[in-house]
Design a protein that fits this description.
Elements lengths: L5 H38 L5 H31 L12 H28 L4 H27 L11 H31 L5 H33 L8 H25 L40 H14 L11
Helix pairs in contact: 1-2, 1-7, 2-3, 2-7, 3-4, 3-5, 3-7, 4-5, 5-6, 6-7, 6-8
Length: 328
């Protein structure tokens, strides 16, 4: 070890420390993912098949991401323990974390774009902007992964090259812009659904807070990844943010699906009637499930937001008329 320059030792220490911190946080979040998936499949077995498949697919991506992280950590801390100079080589599994993160973010953002499309009743400009930024972020993320695997595998320092930093920063910026557009869109249309009824507005306020929290978690993470990678070349502060991106998006979507139960008040709404799957008849006396007349062939599916909100308003108005709900 005396022949190794002190600067190189510090470099390795920072790299391994950031990787260990990222792995610790990421595996903890993976445990939360597993718990949320358990609750989802236990509580919402009546959801539509495509929602269940989406949750399962995201669970597979999150599991692969965790495996890749564990593999990269094992190679760097065990296999290369006695050969520190090998630590400068970029492990392929670490490069794979990036592609899994951008694919996961893209899928989750598509889900929320679908909800905003129904909530806005076809706002082409807003949904088109969301899809544009999400797709560009995905493509740039794939480009980053390809460069790391084909060119940067010989040295982890390639991550600090200007080309990688610019492309990765652009990808992060697009993903963050998409997250903020989703948050803004949800809040705008939810706020537009407010009425003069206190109970109804209370539910809307809670849903807006949830939307803001979702967007803040993912958007801020993307921005922190952008800043630490682009503004701190040669440092590894960005690594923990890289490792938790995938898990944040998965947990955000699962929390969105699972929160329906906590928002359901047995005196107002039957939890089993607030579905993201195929509608089923509600118990006698519980009221009709709200219908979505602008459903474009994808099924009548009430969203978490307006299925609950519409039920509250329906009960307060004490009418038998059906209210509109958006498609999840």
């Amino acid at each position: 070890m005396e022949q190794i320059p002190p600067s190189f030792v510090n470099y390795i220490h920072e790299a391994l420390a950031c990787q260990a911190i990222g792995l610790t946080i990421a595996t903890t979040m993976y445990g939360i993912t597993i718990l949320q998936m358990y609750f989802y499949f236990r509580w919402y077995h009546d959801d539509r098949l495509w929602i269940k498949l989406l949750v399962a697919f995201l669970g597979v991506l999150d599991t692969l991401s965790t495996i890749f992280m564990a593999h990269a950590d094992y190679i760097n801390t065990v296999t290369n323990f006695a050969e520190p100079f090998k630590a400068i080589k970029l492990v392929w599994s670490f490069s794979g974390i990036e592609i899994l993160a951008v694919v996961t973010a893209f899928v989750v953002q598509l889900y929320f774009a679908h909800r905003i499309w129904a909530l806005s009743r076809g706002n082409y400009l807003l949904v088109g902007s969301i899809l544009f930024f999400s797709f560009v972020g995905l493509v740039l993320g794939v480009v980053v992964t390809a460069l790391l695997i084909t060119i940067g595998h010989d040295s982890v320092l390639y991550i600090s090259s200007r080309n990688i930093r610019v492309v990765c920063a652009a990808s992060d910026a697009c993903m963050a812009a998409c997250d903020f557009l989703i948050t803004g869109g949800l809040c705008w249309y939810l706020h537009g659904g407010r009425s003069g009824r206190k109970g109804f507005n209370s539910v809307i306020d809670k849903l807006m807070i949830y939307a803001i929290n979702r967007g803040a978690l993912t958007g801020v993470c993307q921005l922190l990844h952008l800043v630490t990678l682009y503004c701190l070349p040669g440092r590894f502060i960005f690594v923990p943010f890289t490792m938790i991106e995938c898990k944040l998006y998965v947990n955000v979507l699962l929390a969105t699906l699972n929160v329906r139960r906590s928002l359901s008040d047995d005196s107002l709404v039957e939890p089993t009637s607030i579905l993201t799957g195929s509608l089923r008849p509600t118990p006698p006396g519980s009221g009709d499930i709200v219908q979505c007349p602008y459903d474009k062939g994808i099924g009548t599916v009430p969203s978490m937001e307006f299925a609950i909100a519409s039920r509250l308003e329906e009960r307060e108005m004490k009418t038998t008329s059906s209210l509109e709900a958006v498609v999840v």
